Sequence to fold (823 residues):
Amino acid sequence: MNDNNNAGNNNGKDKAALNPFAGRTILVVNTGTLKKKFILQKLNRLGLTIVVLNKEINWAQPYADHWILANTFNHKECLLAIENFIADHPEVKIEGALTFWEDDVLLTSKIIDKFKFIGIPFNVAAKIRNKFALRDFFKNNNLPSIGYKLIKSRADLENIAETMRFPLVLKPVYGSSSAFVLKADNLSELLDNYDYILQSLSLEIESSLADGKELLVEEYIDGEEVDIDILAQNGRIKFLTISDNAKTREPFFIETDHFTPSNLPDKEQTELIALADETLERLGVANGCLHFEAKSTVKGPITIEINLRLGGDETYFSVKEAFRVDLIEGAVKIALGMYMPKVKMPAEPYKYLIARTLNVDRSGILVKLDVDEETLKTKKFLEEFEIFKKVGEAVHVPPEGYEYLGWVMVSGDNFLDAQDNLNDVLDCLHFEVAKFSPVSSLGKTLRRNHFSFSALNTTTLLKDNKIEKIRRMSIKNQRNLHIGIACNAYDESSAESAIELDLTSVGDNIQKILEERGYKVSFFDFNDLNKVFNGLAKSDVDLVFNVCERINNSSLLEPHVASILDTLQIPYTGSNPFTLGLCIDKIRVKKLLTYQQIPTPAWDYVYDLNDRIRDDLKYPLIVKPANTDNSIGITNDSVVINKEELKKQLQYVIGELKRPALIEEYIEGDEYDVSIIGSEDDDLKVLPLFRSIFDKLPEGYWHIYPFEAKFSDNDIYKKGITKERPAKIGKTLEALLSEIALDTYNILDCHDYGRVEIRVDKNNNPYVLELNPNPSINIGDAVPASAELIGLDYGDFLEEIIRLAIKRYQARPPYFHLQSSVR
Fold:
């Protein structure tokens, strides 16, 4: 529970004498999505004290005076949270409760019952919210009804034709907004529809299904569909208006145009009003703002369903413009028990209105959206214009989802005039949706008809838009991205060494810099894998900066971070799991470099102390763990000069560290870090080389980088190793090292950035030691420090990596590292 007072919300509230709402307090149950922003804005302008019951503090914060934080799917938790809030805040007198969100109609009715507010009791709301129970009520009370049946299994549909007439409609008992509602003209289609709905029902697509996922089949009602918007108080209808809905696109019942007021003949409108009045009376609905859906048929009016809250999208605006009746204001008056006189309807509406839902024909990515805003400003008949999608975002339409771009509403002196005005406005709007990439897994599952598809497709399509957004975005919009950071976080008490602290700081530094440059950034700590996986799956991050080096505290699992991102279809920076997995195995890297004739020190390897080692290796040798990073397991004793020392060091690596051992001939000479950025031929860039010179190390210290040199304050190594940044060497050697490093980078298929470590002997002969894909890129590390020498500060470097990742996803198909045809 959280109390969040906003002093700014009290503007004008001291004018109580002129404002009947001043000093009154309303509980709003669930803010809903950002689409409902206009409602909270209106409540705020009324001067109400607004208490919001919601799972979390969100976009509505500027409009709320107090928050009660509870999961609105858990009714018991919410009722207790409200009770505690009232006890803890005796100065806040909640006088009524409202919801504008279908998911919380039942919760609101429970709140009304428990706290004795004015509204619709739970026993009534439960009957209306359940479409099967509502059909039962119609049948048992001699109200117009149709054939219907509750469906508990596929077998319930097999003999449906014996009792009901096609066409039939299959729908969720607790659904809303026509989601998962399908028309079938025969049994085969009905069975396909059932399979589709059963596989596809998802709270992510339609959250109102939290109340239940039962299915209902009913006979199709052929007629003119209408919405009846009602304000009822004390059992009397204080306001009622009818709007017409143009024919929906079937079989999915996609909404198209909405006309206010209705153009039906007076007789049909009178029958609809009588039906609504009698139905509400019989149900016991005495108080509330209602959205009543019905059809006018040749046999008379029939109710489709009743929504116990304000209708969506265009409802509020169309009623307000046509009749100057504010449904939000009316709903508040009813909830607070403020008497509302019956609205006297004008002989003619003040305006005739048409609202158009902006639908698209196929699921895909919005790649073009041109709105002539300057011309639209001159259109006085343009009443409302809402676009919910941005270029680069996915639009999922049936069968993959139930989205649309937005809606537009115009007015006119009559409907013909309004239609002309609508066309005029639509001329100022141009959009294009591109199909999802054919190289993705979308559409690859077997379909029996145009709307049956597998559950795999649903999940894939909902996620694929992240890759498609990156593939189609313009680089100039880079800072509009929501960047995730995959990292490891430790506090000082849990960090076992300087490595953990470094792993923590790199994520913190990247987040800080990107946020300073305007990016929205989210942090994902892979030390808590369950939380991360669920968080990533539900997040809206566009691209992840992958600097994570551990899962379950093991660096061996580092490649699986990229694998997780691949499976979630979230684009990411850096190398793919194939390359990361290969490079962590130094033995396999050695085999590949040798096969590709890349110069590398003579070598061998052992997995067991009894394994034989080749006889032609020349001492001194260096013994390394074959699958660790950060020089873990490498000490000054790692260089050996005879068999006895070799045996001792192998015992340490294999026996104590439990790792296979890589044995190389020791190369006495300078060491070079060759940093590379890019992935494609046209963007690969070798950054200025760094050189390490070891000649100031005292006698007895081998010229290497042991763990102690990297992660301790040992002055011997600090003073004994000279670092040249950039390396002061001849152009011939520089070119040779760069060429060998590039070959290594490409052979191992490194992406976006990497670092190749090369040794040269006394004759400047180069030997590749290893490639580090996704090397540490903390402030001051080799790769960003090298980039700084070509004019990229740390922030520029990070943005360049993001740019390179975007370019890579645009140039290559998803998962190209798993497709042999592109390798």
